[in-house]
Design brief:
Blueprint lengths: L1 H16 L46 H14 L6 H7 L1 H6 L11 H17 L18 H7 L1 H9 L5 H4 L6 H11 L11 H6 L26 H21 L15 E3 L2 H4 L12 E5 L26 E4 L4 E6 L10 E7 L17 E9 L10 E8 L4 E6 L19 E9 L4 E7 L10 E4 L3 E3 L15 E6 L7 E6 L3 E6 L8 E3 L5 E3 L3 E4 L5 E6 L6 E6 L3 E6 L8 E4 L3 E5 L6 E6 L10 E6 L8 E5 L4 E7 L4 E6 L3 E6 L17 E11 L18 H7 E7 L12 H12 L12 E6 L8 E6 L3 E6 L1 H4 L3 H15 L7 H6 L6
Parallel strand pairs: 2-31, 7-11, 12-17
Antiparallel strand pairs: 1-11, 3-34, 4-5, 5-6, 6-7, 8-9, 9-10, 10-12, 13-14, 14-15, 15-18, 16-17, 19-20, 20-21, 21-22, 23-24, 24-25, 25-26, 27-28, 28-29, 29-30, 30-31, 32-33, 33-34
Helix pairs in contact: 3-5, 5-9
InterPro entries: GTF3C_component, WD40/YVTN_repeat-like_dom_sf, WD40_repeat_CS, WD40_repeat_dom_sf, WD40_rpt
Subunit structure: Part of the TFIIIC subcomplex TFIIIC2, consisting of six subunits, GTF3C1, GTF3C2, GTF3C3, GTF3C4, GTF3C5 and GTF3C6.
Protein name: General transcription factor 3C polypeptide 2
Length: about 800
């Protein structure tokens, strides 16, 4: 009945409010009653002492500091026996001698385990920048009640299965060595070892939090010397050391000894012969450069074809004109510590208004340009110059990749004629469906002093077999990726029909390798598979494990592949239309540049997508209003850079993506603009008419006479007070209110962005686009703290390898002279 129920409730409430009747000195007294509002039995030590009751308060509202102060005040008012777990923390010698025992004489299992759990929790809470201070009088003591509350369910199971067998419980007694080892582990982490975004919450006063993986990361407090927060710069330091160690393992000093450039394979072209290959524009569009912190002088520049401006004395930015829209660009790799001249290979269309159909094959003249940038440093730069150019007849170039390592040798290496010292091996993807390999010499090794020439290739790679003829059935080749681990003998390519082909460059099979009458090789793939329903826009190899590959297709899918099981992808993600992907070394996913044609409102831009092993959702790196044409990542700086249709070059420092990136807060603090290109109306007469507007035309001849490009550069030497500086405010405004003018020629658009992969120039970034103006910038603020220790060590090691003689004798001995 209702009366009986009410009576029962009142009886239960009376029992819950009763105090335990057993005295502290009577261990055999009746079982203690439950305390009000807690629902758990009161804890008593083995000698029967009762800890003071917990202070009332709402669960989860008090911080750790407040709980420690509350416990200290209670101990001062009413001294109680010190819990055994606190005794073990205070000193290893006292803990070893003061272990609590049961009436039967065996060690107390529960107290020992609680002590170990407390030490583990303490190691997670303490920062790695200081050791825990020794206990003194008046010092705050940790509260073991909070630890026991967290482990309530585990402790109850232990109490239920607790036995009186001393042999069983002996393993749970912490010895002096265990306690000392736990104390050493607390301070063994480096100050900038691992970091995740929850550290920002700790700094902002939200209390300590652990990541979703259950591991607590060291707190990185304060600001770095460059102005960024230490939690942002910590992954940069981590990735730079990791990149150096993995390159020592996976990179080679010398590969492909048979593929040496030969002097008689190069033919210098006359002016009339080279004319069909040269870009049509002889002068660049008008442009000006405004640098942050420097008063604008209002000078308009017009650079001749294949010429460059002098680098700025303070900002070190370099600008040069290549003659047409840039659609392919790549740095030439060099060994760490070589202090060698840096080179950039690029391709541009012959005309500013040139268009190409992606369907079908087409050939035609193409010009590969190799530009020398000198020995790039963080405090000095040289004027860029065209080293030489290679004329080809395979149509336009969609992608090019250098062999990652083992293809460079010192320019002064002793070679017997007709051999020349090798600069690198370059693979080029053409619109006629072929992939062509070139062995490029150092510019100084060319005997003929000519700027343009034709060269016989080392090998031609095409899909099919020796019975399929010369025409490729897969369409144009849009993307390339060289195997990142030595011996770099595999090369992958993506084609128009969605096919991915993989070649073995060192194969001796008669079915895969055919020697041509001119001495070059024709190679056929040893593996082909249909990766997408449409063109493969981008392909990247995993740098940490060569068994994995990622492809992005025009079918809006991103697929991760295991080359050992190609019957299905590891993961397939259908999102937006991806233009290019970048796979940084330490991460299990890729950063993706996207077109905005299929993007939802507010979600267009750059994303980090996990391969699927960790199960993360896409992390939004940076929003963009227009199409992001290109993206590049730097393993040394843990940074990605992207160029879009609006003419803005944006860089973003990635967080530690080994943990859940969804915990990252305020991602806007991690990205910054490198420069912004704007197309502005221009009056040849010099009149300042405010009503001037840009012409709505796609003809370059009209655009160049009525407009000019204004480059606004960011001061990248320091990031102090960066959120309040004008470039950052402008970038955030563009992200929200940017307008696209798709009814005119996008002369300010950026098509290619590339970070330098070399340690000697790891802070440098090149970019080029529709206007044919290529610019190089140094991210001094990010690169300042990375190479201080790595670069001197690598240079000393390089000097030991090539110290006495200018070149390595073993390289000349391994190279083979061609058969006459």
């Amino acid at each position: 009945s209702e009366e009986g129920v009410e009576a029962t409730k009142s009886q239960k409430k009376t029992v819950r409010n009763q105090k335990p009747k057993s005295s502290p000195s009577d261990p055999n007294g009746p079982a203690p009653a439950e305390t009000e509002g807690c629902g758990e039995p009161s804890r008593t030590s083995e000698n029967g002492s009762v800890p003071p009751p917990k202070a009332p308060g709402k669960r989860g509202r008090k911080s750790k500091t407040e709980m420690l102060l509350l416990k200290l005040s209670q101990d001062l008012e009413c001294p109680t026996p010190e819990p055994i777990c606190v005794q073990k923390m205070l000193g290893s010698s006292e803990a070893a001698e003061g272990l609590e025992t049961t009436p039967g004489g065996r060690p107390k299992r529960r107290a020992a385990k609680v002590a170990l759990l407390y030490l583990q929790e303490l190691a997670e809470e303490l920062t790695s920048v200081y050791q825990p201070p020794a206990p003194t009088e008046g010092a705050q003591e940790p509260d073991p009640e909070r630890i026991q509350k967290k482990r309530r369910s585990r402790r109850r199971k232990e109490e239920e299965t607790d036995s009186d067998d001393p042999a069983r419980d002996a393993d749970f007694v912490p010895s002096k060595e265990v306690l000392l080892q736990a104390e050493e582990e607390e301070g063994s982490d480096a100050p900038l070892s691992e970091v995740s975004e929850p550290e920002l919450e700790v700094v902002r006063g939200h209390g300590g939090r652990t990541s979703s993986s259950g591991r607590s990361k060291p707190q990185c407090r304060g600001l770095a010397p460059n102005g960024f927060h230490n939690s942002i710069m910590a992954p940069v330091e981590k990735c730079s050391s990791l990149t150096c160690s993995l390159r020592d393992q996976k990179y080679s000093q010398w590969e492909f000894p048979d593929w040496i450039p030969l002097a008689h394979k190069w033919t210098c072209l006359s002016e009339s012969e080279a004319a069909p290959y040269l870009p049509a524009e002889e002068k660049s569009p008008l442009f000006s450069i405004q640098r942050e912190g420097i008063e604008d002088d209002g000078v308009l520049y017009r650079v001749n074809r294949f010429n460059s401006l002098q680098p700025h004395e303070e900002r070190l930015d370099v600008s040069f004109f290549v003659g047409g829209p840039v659609w392919a660009m790549e740095w030439c790799p060099s060994p760490e510590g070589s202090a060698a001249s840096q080179y950039v290979a690029l391709y541009c269309h012959g005309s500013m208004e040139e268009t190409h159909s992606v369907a079908g094959l087409h050939g035609g003249p193409a010009l590969l340009q190799l530009w020398g940038l000198g020995t790039l440093q963080q405090d000095s730069a040289n004027k860029a110059g065209l080293a030489y150019a290679v004329a080809a007849d395979h149509g336009c170039v969609w992608d090019m990749k250098f062999c990652p390592s083992g293809a460079w040798e010192p320019p002064t290496t002793a070679r017997k004629h007709p051999q020349m010292s090798r600069l690198g091996l370059l693979a080029v993807a053409f619109s006629d469906g072929k992939v062509v390999l070139y062995s490029l010499p150092h510019p100084g090794a060319l005997q003929a002093k000519c700027s343009c020439g034709s060269v016989q290739c080392i090998a031609t790679l095409q899909v099919g077999s020796i019975q399929a003829g010369n025409a490729s059935e897969c369409g144009q080749c849009f993307s390339l990726s060289w195997m990142p681990c030595k011996p770099h003998h595999h090369l992958a390519a993506g084609f128009y029909d969605g096919t991915v082909a993989v070649w073995n460059l060192l194969t001796k099979s008669l079915l895969q390798c055919v020697r041509q009458p001119d001495g070059s090789l024709k190679l056929y793939p040893f593996r082909c598979f249909l990766a997408h329903d449409h063109a493969v826009r981008s392909i990247e190899w995993c740098k940490a494990d060569s068994n994995f590959l990622v492809t992005a297709g025009s079918d809006r899918k991103i697929k991760f592949w295991d080359l050992r099981r190609l019957y299905e992808p590891i993961n397939s993600i259908k999102r937006f239309l991806s233009t290019e992907v970048a796979w940084l070394l330490p991460y299990n996913g890729v950063t993706v540049a996207q077109d905005n044609c299929y993007a939802s409102y507010g979600l267009c831009g750059i994303h980090y997508i996990d391969a699927g092993y960790l199960g993360f959702k896409a992390y939004f790196v940076a929003p963009r209003k227009g199409t992001v044409w290109s993206i590049s990542g730097s393993d040394w700086l843990n940074t990605v850079a992207a160029g879009d249709i609006t003419g803005e070059l944006v860089a973003a420092v990635l967080p530690d993506l080994a943990v859940n990136p969804l915990n990252v807060k305020r991602s806007s603090d991690r990205r910054f603009p490198v420069y912004k290109a704007d197309l502005l109306p221009f009056s040849p007469a010099g009149s300042e008419d405010s009503e001037q507007v840009l012409p709505k035309t796609r003809l370059y001849s009209e655009m160049v006479t009525k407009s000019y490009i204004r480059f606004r550069d960011t001061d990248l030497r320091s990031f102090k007070n960066f959120p309040s500086r004008e470039p950052m405010r402008r970038m955030h405004t563009q992200e929200v209110k940017a307008e696209l003018s798709l009814d005119r020629l996008q002369l300010e658009s950026l098509h290619k962005v590339r970070f330098s992969p070399n340690l000697d120039s790891h802070g440098w970034l090149v970019s080029g686009g529709q206007a044919g103006i290529v610019r190089a910038h140094c991210l001094v603020g990010l690169a300042s703290g990375v190479g201080h220790q790595l670069l001197p060590e690598c240079r000393a090691r390089f000097s030991n390898l090539y110290g006495d003689k200018p070149g390595s004798p073993s390289l000349a001995e391994q190279s083979l002279l061609p058969a006459e």
